[in-house]
Amino acid sequence: MRLRVAVALLLGLSAAACSPNEVTIGPEEPVETAHVDAAVSNAAQELLERESIPIAVLYFDAENPEEVVRYDWIDYRPGGDVLAVYRYLDRDQTIALSLVDGVWMTALDSERDDSAWEVDTTLTQPEDVVPAIGVLNGMSEQATLTAIPTEAIRQTASDGSELWTLNIGDDAVVSEWIVSPGGLLQFYRVFDSAGHGDGVSTITHEYGIGDDEPGPVVAPIEGNPLQLDDLAIPTALRGLETAEE
Questions:
Q1: What is the pLDDT of residues 52-89, one digit of tens each?
Q2: Whole-angstrom Cα distance, residue 140 to residue 49?
Q3: Could you tell me the CA-to-CA distances from 140 to 24, 38, 68, 120, 212 in Å, in that order?
Q4: Could you say which DSSP state residue 20 is in?
Q5: What is the largest distance, in Å, between two alpha-carbon atoms of the chain?
Q6: 189: which of 116, 155, 177, 242 is 20 to 30 A away, CA to CA?
């Protein structure tokens, strides 16, 4: 299995996650691209039916694939509120956005400049403002449209989860999805040999299962400075900050 599942399990967002040592992966089974699209679309749609969706995104350095240069933390209520934190580990910069009761607020903390929480009336819908939410919504309508040769693969794990893979253009782009035994999208990884920009070659998304009756999204106070300790970011993500020191 090419995907480093341990990265996803480290964050512990998904109730379906197991220890890597407890899961065995079956052989690769060639499938049609349409089969991958259907599996991804259904799993993303099921996830979007949840009351809340925690999302952790990791960005890996193009020259050092083991190094995380940025993480995003998104606490999302589909159709409602959202908190998004973008933490750039390679340049000590944090950008945060909050949508609570229809009001967007933003804040910045960096080596060169700081900006306290303030109302931003220029922002629109979460899927247009927060990239990870846009990606998730896009996968709910997954359709692989490409004239480039594409290899589609399905693998089944011993816990009932499935790994779906698309290799596009002789592995120039590799996309992988894990669908949980319950049919929910659990993990998405995309590697692009040409790079995603900003020195990043691989981006992973882990989707968690929020509570059926989730607590409210953290609502910042206008004029307060951005403090990561106040935003309920998972410990595993915060640990990446000290790992880069």
A1: 999 999 999 988 888 999 999 999 999 899 999 999 99
A2: 11
A3: 28, 9, 27, 28, 21
A4: G
A5: 55
A6: 242
